């Protein structure tokens, strides 16, 4: 794919700066977000402009700036240590009026079942297509208490 020079260089410069800021702050950026911001900025500059940041614009922008989209995996970004320290110092004062068996942590998660694996072994050169994945799922609320008593998982519908 040939990379063309931009018809709207100020617009692309603005979007690039926005991308850099988000990237520096480890904030996820989607293609749709970049396209929308480009169109918004173009309208700010000139309300009569007929600029459309379509898929072709996005592909060209990505090539010009060496940007690729990747699947996000886990929560590997570093946490703000000062926030963590502050929270640990405030927590005892927040808990002082409660008994340890009245303090809980809870998190909900989706439990999928009857799902097939998304990879399989196949012979070289052989095309292999998977089927539809099961959408059966149950939402489960997992809890733990401060005093470490065991809590049963609750199924949410």
UniProtKB/TrEMBL annotation:
SMART domains: CENPB (SM00674)
Keywords linked to the UniProt accession: DNA-binding
Source organism, top-level taxon: Eukaryota
Predominant subcellular localization, coarse grouping: nucleus
DNA-binding in keyword set: yes
Pfam families: HTH_Tnp_Tc5
Location relative to the cell: Nucleus
One Gene Ontology cellular component annotation held by this UniProt entry: nucleus
Identification of the protein by name: Tigger transposable element-derived protein 6
């Amino acid at each position: 794919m040939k990379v063309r020079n931009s018809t709207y260089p100020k617009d692309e410069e603005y979007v690039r700066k926005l991308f850099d800021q988000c990237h520096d702050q480890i904030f996820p950026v989607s293609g749709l977000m970049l396209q929308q911001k480009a169109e918004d900025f173009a309208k700010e500059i000139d309300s009569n402009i007929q600029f459309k940041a379509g898929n072709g614009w996005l592909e060209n922008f990505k090539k010009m700036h060496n940007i690729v989209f990747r699947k996000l995996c886990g929560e590997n970004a570093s946490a703000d240590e000062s926030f963590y320290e502050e929270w640990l110092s405030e927590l005892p004062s927040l808990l002082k009026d409660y008994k340890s068996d009245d303090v809980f942590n809870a998190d909900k998660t989706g439990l999928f079942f009857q799902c097939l694996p998304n990879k399989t072994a196949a012979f070289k050169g052989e095309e292999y297509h998977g089927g539809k994945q099961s959408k059966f799922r149950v939402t489960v609320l997992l809890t733990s208490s401060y005093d470490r008593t065991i809590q049963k998982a609750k199924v949410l519908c």
